[in-house]
Amino acid sequence: MIQDESSAKSAIAKGQVSGKNLDYVSINDILPSDAKARLLTGFKDLDIVLGGGFLAGSVTLLTGQPGIGKSTLLMQVCAKIAKDVPVLYVSGEESAGQVKLRAKRLGANSEDLSFASSTSGNDIAKTIESGKFKFVIVDSIQTLSLNELTSAPGTVSQVTNCGNLIIRAAKMTDTAVVIVGHVTKEGTLAGPKVLEHLVDVVVNFEGDRYGGFKTVRAVKNRFGSTSEVAIFEMNDKGLSEVQNPSAALLAERQNTDGSIILATVEGARPLLVEIQALVTSTNFGYPKRTCSGFDINRLNLLIAVIERRTKLKLSDKDVFINVVGGIKLQDSAADLAVCMAIASALAKRKLSEKYVVFGEVGLGGEIRSAFRLDQRIAESKKLGFTHAIAPATIKDSFVLPVKDLRDTLIKYMK
Ligand code: TYD
Ligand code: MG
User: 31-35, 81-85, 124-128, 410-414: lowest mean pLDDT where?
Assistant: First the structure.
């Protein structure tokens, strides 16, 4: 029916209100959704990331690059949860045989773990609506489509509408649902960025596809904090949580020039990681700057600060930065460690292997304070370091206080 434009206009123009009164209650009378059951994943740290396990009726979006281990992690979680409640794993990507192969490898076998292969958003929502399952995996949203829409799977309209149907079904029946979403290399959800607004929790699976540590962190959580992180390692029996990541990261360290230990924080956990720098002469054209695990724009900024505020010359040098172990640093206090690694590589001088470093570097070359100082220091002490080169704001005999990049390099790299 085509609406008459003049009548549509006049209803608003007359200022008429067509809605009805909302049903409201006192906030004191509302039961918190936390009162509902939480499904524990079998991974202690992952439970913390989720705010205490999967909440009944919640919808979680698990994002990550293809091949990072999303399906593996979820199969392991399903195996654990199926011991308590009926679980359904729906895959639109893999056949039953393939999934069985993985489940067998991971030792996931349970009467209460069911599998279905489907790419129909309608069918999946309908099945969730039946209420037979308390935990459902949808792997992945990019493969789903609705009968009512003609666009291809993975497009914004398919993703949003399938997502909406599934979310509604989950809320109606108090089913905990996990939707898998692939992201592109740049970290954006291919197609369905919109989905992030619709779901309750968004957890991101990051790291190197080939070995190294993988981290799972919540970027949005309606039922918990977003500052926690779980660190995993992949082996032939699937994913396992890394118990002492700092020790594991430092195990293969060789104290060469260009190597600096940074005391960082991943989410709310302190972590010691090795930053490696390599500085070589530029042979042709522009100097090259390359990072792995560190932001390239931040590196360019730090190089500019080094050039302007110290006597080091990098304009005819290629600079490579590597963060060992597949960790992606998002910590501004990594600045000082990166600068010192570059200076160390350039001057071919080593820092004492018993020193850790942290602190933010400002454009004036000043060293600025960092957050969670106590945790960084405690972790460094625990792993046998004797001193931290760190911002002067900290009063602790463990800390060798520094205020300025130039002075720091003169004092420790000369
Ligand atoms: P997968 O979970 O399929 O990744 P995603 O669902 O995110 O695309 O698996 C990722 C990789 O993990 C795959 O290349 C094979 C490897 N893998 C192991 O190393 N050990 C294992 O036990 C399993 C199941 C997979
Ligand atoms: Mg997969």
Answer: 31-35
Packing angle of the helix pair 121-129, 156-173 (nearest 10 deg):
10
Give the pLDDT confidence of 16-30 residue by residue, as tens digits.
Answer: 788 888 989 898 888
Token pair for residue 1?
């029916």
Q: How many A from CA of 313 to the centre of ligand 1?
A: 44
Same domain, 70 and 135: yes
- Cβ–Cβ < 8 Å for 176, 170: yes
Say if residue 1's pLDDT is above 50.
Answer: no
pLDDT at 107 over 80: yes
Q: Which ligand is nearest to the CA of 101?
A: 1
Q: Do 258 and 397 lie in a common domain? A: yes
Q: Which domain holds residue 157?
A: 33-243
Mutate to test the pocket of ligand 1, among 61, 62, 72 (most ligand atoms within 8 A of CB): 72
Q: Which band of pLDDT confidence, cut at 50, 70 and 90, is reported for residue 254? A: confident
Binning the chain into helix, strand and coil, the percentages to the nearest 5 are: 30, 25, 40
The verdict on the CB of residue 92 being under 6 Å from ligand 1 is no
Domains in the chain, number: 2
pLDDT in tens, 234-248: 988 899 999 888 888
Is the full-model pTM beyond 0.85?
no
Q: Are strands 289-292 and 229-235 parallel, antiparallel or unpaired?
A: unpaired
Domain match, 174 and 61 both? yes
Examine the domain organization and report whether 236 and 252 are in the same domain: no
Residue with the smallest CA separation from ligand 1 atom 17 is 238
